[in-house]
Structure to design on (178 residues):
């Protein structure tokens, strides 16, 4: 069952142009120094929300919300991600994903279910491991980026530029390159 560390019941900014709920999946394998959700890093959270409770909430919000975005932590670490997305899709919602691309194999499994994906690119690939604190993170992120681009799914790539302790977010829209 999906491990949920938090739920945003209404967001106008997590899925472009749509009203969405955001499901924050518990757990992240990377340890980025600027992480804005450090409470979601451990595999088990202090206060988790049971997946059936999330589904019950989404059932009540049908017709009011357009989409559900799976975020984190890192959703692709969860073995039950595909099943959870299938349940949400079956309710008639658009499905979005925020990912850092930690598990390209699982990303490939869920891409056919997605209507939109936003990927956090932690750093230039040559410096990726310095930010994440994990060997092989650049290889995984690069593979995930390639899967997303090849899928044709609407997407955005986000990064954070940090200078002298100040962080600045940037968003890249691949569709604008054409």
């Amino acid at each position: 069952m999906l491990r949920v560390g938090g739920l945003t019941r209404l967001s106008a900014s997590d899925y472009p142009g749509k009203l969405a709920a955001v499901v924050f999946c518990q757990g992240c394998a990377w340890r980025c120094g600027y992480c804005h959700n450090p409470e979601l890093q451990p595999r088990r959270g202090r206060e988790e929300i049971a997946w059936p409770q999330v589904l019950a909430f989404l059932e009540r919000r049908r017709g009011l919300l357009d989409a559900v975005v799976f975020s984190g932590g890192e959703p692709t670490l969860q073995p039950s991600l595909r099943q959870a997305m299938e349940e949400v899709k079956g309710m008639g919602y658009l499905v979005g994903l925020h990912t850092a691309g930690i598990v390209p194999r699982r990303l490939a499994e869920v891409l056919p279910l997605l209507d939109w994906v936003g990927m956090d690119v932690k750093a230039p690939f040559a410096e990726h491991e310095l930010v994440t604190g994990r060997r092989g993170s650049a290889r995984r992120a690069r593979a995930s980026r390639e899967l997303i681009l090849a899928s044709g799914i609407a997407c955005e790539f986000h990064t954070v530029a940090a200078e002298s302790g100040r962080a600045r977010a940037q968003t890249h829209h691949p569709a604008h390159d054409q």
Remarks:
- The CA atoms of residues 4 and 50 lie 7 Å apart.
